[in-house]
Write a structure and sequence with these properties.
Blueprint: H1 21-25, H2 35-39, H3 44-71, H4 74-81, H5 111-123, E1 129-136, E2 148-155, H6 162-169, H7 174-183, H8 186-191, E3 209-214, H9 222-236, H10 240-247, H11 250-260, E4 263-268, H12 273-280, E5 291-294, E6 297-300, H13 335-338, H14 348-360, E7 364-369, E8 372-377, H15 389-406, E9 411-414, H16 415-418, H17 427-434, E10 439-446, H18 456-460, H19 465-488, H20 503-507, H21 518-532, H22 537-549, E11 554-555, E12 597-598, H23 605-641
Parallel strand pairs: 3-4, 3-7, 7-10, 8-9
Antiparallel strand pairs: 1-2, 2-4, 5-6, 8-10, 11-12
């Protein structure tokens, strides 16, 4: 009979509370009908019932947590799928409060200051550079819109061609987006099935490499806009004399200048201006907890500072507002971080980029973020990288870039595995599928892996001036070398055959990248044999095709609906359907361990999970209702009669203390 609160329950076998002896020796308690004893009376039965209900509640929660963690154990499911071990460096150190804030005076620049300087740089080189401001109203919701604008910088070494200017000046209005939405079946894009067809390409007409770099998609990632400004200034002065003091490698500089002669670079210095302005707004010390806007609703935030703000001004993440897999929610979904908006392409920021891509038709895009060190390939909605020739070549090149520019500190591979979470409705997934862009990469250029999620400044940005300069210089060098890879035809399908490795790519050792299986390794080995002429060419192509066909499938459960699964063997070659039916808050890195489900080993887990949660919810509320009803009955009954089932009343020790 000793329970958790033994000090207030009677002692076994004595009928006396543990703390009563001294009181009894001093004459005992007040008399049995006194107001005090009548008002506050011992009721160990009610206490036991209440504790039992709490114990059952804890048991139910433990069972629910236990079942979900067992079903979605990432390590186990990765092993079943055959995903290989990869290199995932963890950079940073644990830092306690007080947490740093941006140094706007000496280290970082506010958005308006950066924008003014970029306009000045472009104005000093009108022959080779052009800047254009684009505006969007966004989707009207409840008679209100959220307008936004972006600045698009265009650079063409040697002089802006008429074709380049025509592509920029012909960027349409939001009507371009609305027409596509009316003509497309968004459910096909949400499922990412075979009926979701890419937008036909009409350009380029002059054969130049058109590359787009996106910065500042999330407000708190302020280091990315610093890199954008540095990149623009470097391009405006690009020559042997200006690049050699920075990179000190004549061969590299010559390759860069040769590539820039045949490329058109498009830069969006800050995509999410409204979110960035919230980051720059000083915190209101009189308002706690902090609030943020989620559409037309003001909501409490779990983050302590405006520097933590990620989405745009109405709480929508621009990197979750694209049509591919839009609206799906992972099991650890956080609305403050991942809200995809009321509809695909509802937000002005994705609409503006859609219009740019529709007119410019780039051959490569790089979406620059921060929060960790990484170079990632699509898809974002699955932890398994697509087994395609161009992607395999790019991860080999990325691994070499990582070694050269970041001393191997970056994680390379499939975004859905390397980051630690999957993302639905992401920018890169749609740009690759919807616009048919063969090279779509995500770069995470800075971050502290170990700091607390409240320390947003250090989680996403360097806090030392020398460190900031080093990161900006190295990642800009990586961007320039990426352009040289495109120019040399090292990425299959871009100035080279679409189904073969070049000898330079084949010479790179197979990297330990994330999100690949033995099937990916076999395909890389076979493509290497083809590049060097080893073995029978037809047999080697058949070997590569078979390796791609046996790539496994990983299906991700979501909060939206049950996921039915099918066996994943022997499906697809060039674009395996398995990879089209698969199912990411870097603050604290959302864990993937409780999300994953391999389609070939279990079936309909999400529906079982939903049913289980419903049953436990009913049970828990039933127990609480019975407990409260019994407690209320006992209080009312004792208050009226002063007796308990004919037994003499007991007093409690605090009646007289």
């Amino acid at each position: 009979r000793w329970l958790a609160w033994g000090w207030c329950l009677e002692r076994p076998g004595t009928g006396v509370f543990p703390h009563e002896r001294d009181l009894l020796s001093r004459g005992g308690p007040p008399r049995a009908g006194s107001k005090t004893t009548h008002k506050m009376r011992s009721n160990s039965t009610t206490t036991k019932a209440f504790l039992s209900a709490l114990a059952l509640l804890a048991l139910a929660v433990w069972q629910v947590e236990g079942r979900t963690s067992v079903r979605f154990n990432a390590a186990l499911e990765f092993e079943k799928a055959g995903i290989l071990e990869c290199s995932k460096p963890t950079i940073g150190k644990r830092v306690g409060p007080p947490y740093p804030l941006p140094d706007w005076e000496n280290m970082y620049s506010k958005l308006d200051v950066q924008t003014r300087r970029i306009y000045e740089v472009v104005g000093q080189n009108p022959k080779e550079m052009h800047i254009q401001n684009l505006y969007s109203e966004g989707l009207e919701i409840q008679d209100s819109t959220a307008s936004a604008d972006i600045d698009l910088v265009v650079y063409e070494r040697g002089g802006l061609s008429a074709d380049t200017l025509q592509a920029v000046n012909s960027i349409g209005s939001d009507q371009v987006v609305e027409e596509w939405l009316r003509e497309s079946n968004l459910e096909d894009w949400r499922e990412n099935n075979e009926r979701a067809r890419p937008i036909p390409r009409k350009r380029p007409t002059d054969g130049k490499l058109r590359v787009v770099f996106i910065f500042g998609e999330h407000g708190r990632e302020i280091v990315t806009t610093e890199m954008a400004e540095y990149f623009v200034k470097l391009l405006s002065e690009a020559s042997v004399e200006t690049l050699m003091p920075i990179f000190e490698d004549r061969t590299f500089v010559d390759d860069v200048l040769a590539a820039l002669d045949e490329a058109v670079i498009h830069i969006v210095p800050c995509e999410n201006k409204s979110g960035r302005r919230i980051v720059e707004t000083p915190d209101d010390e009189d308002t706690y907890p902090r609030t943020y806007q989620l559409m037309n609703k003001t909501t409490h935030s779990k983050y302590p500072s405006n520097i933590c703000h990620r989405p745009n001004s109405r709480g929508v993440d621009p990197n979750r507002n694209w049509p591919v897999k839009w609206g799906n929610k992972p099991l650890d979904y956080q609305a403050e971080q991942e809200f995809g908006g009321p509809a695909p392409l509802s937000e002005p920021e994705p609409r503006l980029l859609f219009r740019v891509y529709k007119s410019v038709e780039p051959i490569s895009t790089v979406n620059v973020h921060s929060g960790m060190h990484g170079i990632f390939m699509p898809p974002d909605f699955s932890p398994l990288m697509e087994n395609e020739v161009d992607l395999l070549a790019q991860v080999k090149l990325q691994d070499r870039l990582n070694d050269r520019w970041m001393d191997g500190k970056s994680t390379v591979g499939a975004a859905g595995y390397a980051v630690g979470y999957v993302a639905y409705g992401s920018h890169n997934d749609f740009v690759r599928t919807g616009f048919g862009v063969p090279s779509t990469q995500t770069w995470e250029i800075a971050g502290n892996w170990f700091t607390q999620f409240q320390n947003c400044m250090e989680t996403y940005n360097p806090i030392l001036g020398d460190e900031l300069k080093e990161y900006v210089r190295n990642w800009t060098g990586m961007a320039l070398e990426h352009i040289t890879h495109l120019h040399k035809g090292l990425i299959p399908g871009i100035r080279s055959p679409p189904n073969e490795f070049s000898k330079e790519v084949a010479e790179i050792p197979n990297p330990h990248v994330c999100g690949i299986t033995q099937a990916h390794v076999d395909a890389m080995n076979g493509l290497g044999d083809i590049a060097f002429g080893r073995g029978d060419r037809a047999e080697r192509f058949a070997f590569v095709e078979e390796a791609m066909r046996r790539t496994p499938t990983i299906v991700m459960p979501t909060l939206n609906s049950p996921v039915s699964t099918t066996p994943s063997a022997a499906i697809g070659t060039a674009t395996p359907p398995a990879l089209q039916t698969g199912g990411k808050d870097t603050a604290g890195q959302l864990g993937v361990n409780d999300r994953l489900f391999i389609g070939t080993t279990k079936a309909k887990v999400p529906s079982t999970y939903s049913l289980m949660m419903g049953s436990y919810t009913i049970m828990i509320f039933g127990l609480l209702f019975v407990t409260l009803s019994f407690y209320t009955y006992r209080r009312v009954s004792l208050g009226r009669t002063g007796r308990r089932g004919g037994r003499p009343r007991r007093y409690r020790v605090w009646d007289v203390v």
